[in-house]
Amino acid sequence: MLNLNGPKFKLCDGLTRRSVLQIGSLAMGGMALPQLLQAEQAVGVSNNKKGVIMVFLPGGPPHQDMWDIKTDAPAEIRGEFSAIDTNVPGIQIGEMFPRIAQVADKCAFIRSMVGATGSHHAFQCLTGNSDRQQPPGGWPSIGSVLSKVYGSRDPAVPAFVGLSPKTRHAPWGDPGQPGFLGVAHAPFQPHGEGMSDMTLNGISADRLGDRKSVLNSLDTFRRTADASGMMEGMDAFSQQAFGILTSSKLADALDVEREPSEVRDRYGRGTAKLVADGGPKLLDNFLVARRLIESGVRCVTLCFSRWDWHSGNFKRGREDMPMLDQALSALIEDLEQRGMLDDISVCVWGEFGRTPKINSKGGRDHWPRVSTALLAGGGMRTGQVIGSTNRLGEYAQDRPVHFQEVFATLYKQLGINIDELTLNDLQGRPRYLIDHNVHRPIRELV
């Protein structure tokens, strides 16, 4: 670890602090940045511009109050929300999503998601796999797979960024784990210590160069003393480490203040306040996700609010759904206006659905039997509804879609052949990304 001292400054407590630049961990699983770059170089950098933005709604959003309104069901199941028309004839969604209704032609609404394990965390929505029977090292998330298979598009930005903030129920804030692919393919997490590491804090280029010379001298000494020769070739990766830290590209992408005010207003601001044991309602993260993808990141994960509404389901829906409606519709429109929507897949879902019957507290409880998802972009055939539930929203009546089918679709649109690609687990055993003999890409979309 290399620390570079910056200028002194005073905090509100009156004490003096000195800013520090640390070249090393960059919030990437504790692995030094040169080592991370070396691992990525072994895979090779691809110019493939495909990417994915994964939006996780922690807690289990109510499917029958969003994309699968049950207008013919009894009041104790139908609830308080009505259906509205979209810009696609014949497709209706919940009234809390008027802006999504106007971009429905760019969306696919899956009303028959099945296969949920019932676990109260993000794991299945980030990997497609169950957390219960994992290979040695664990299943990798989709962002880690893209990091391994394609590497970074740009040396100045990581392949995988996790924007999910820390939540009091920690499994909801999981940005995606690298599993058996190792820490070299863990997500960069800007809310961690890595954010301060990216800032030079007034250090001049000459001053940085002086310290770089010291580091190079130390490396030369270490190589001289290294009889095994393992230090050979590290100079190039150290150079890239300095390149990331001295480049403004990643830091600029994370800075939404650079966006015009009208763009920020379109997405909305949200709030950083935590919601019970869940996360904040950071609408800015949807805009940051677009900026990161535009800068060269391949996968961005984020979570929004807390959807575990055992009580006050409709009160919470009136608070959170319009916010999601605003930010998500802005993201889809923004990607299209920038010519990125055909390359970037957007996936929005939670770990399971909610009970059809409203409980005595005006809430809905856990319901793993069926849930819903929204897909957009990625070159998919959108403007359609896939699957259906029965009149009461209890189970998939038509065209059940498994979590792994969604991942099979995403991987296909990302240019990955699920029938051929295998990645080795920690015992060296090749593993397919999903059970490709059972679960195939969604035929209606590809």
How would you describe what is shown here?
With 446 residues, this protein is an alpha/beta fold. It folds into 2 domains: 78 residues, no CATH class; 321 residues, Alkaline Phosphatase, subunit A. The chain is 29% helix and 18% strand. Helix 1 crosses helix 8 and helix 11 packs parallel to helix 12. The longest helix has 25 residues. The radius of gyration is 23 Å and the shape is globular. It starts with a strand and ends in a 14-residue tail after the last strand.
What can be said about the biggest beta sheet? 8 strands, mixed
What multimeric state do the chains show?
single chain
> Termini separation (Å)?
46 Å
The computed structural class is alpha/beta
CATH H-tier superfamily of the largest domain: Alkaline Phosphatase, subunit A
The first-level CATH class of the largest domain is given as: Alpha Beta
CATH topology of the largest domain: Alkaline Phosphatase, subunit A
Query: Based on the structure given, which CATH architecture of the largest domain is correct?
Result: 3-Layer(aba) Sandwich
> Count of DSSP E strands?
20
In total, the number of domains comes to 2
The shape is globular
Cα Rg: 23 Å
Strand content: 15-25%
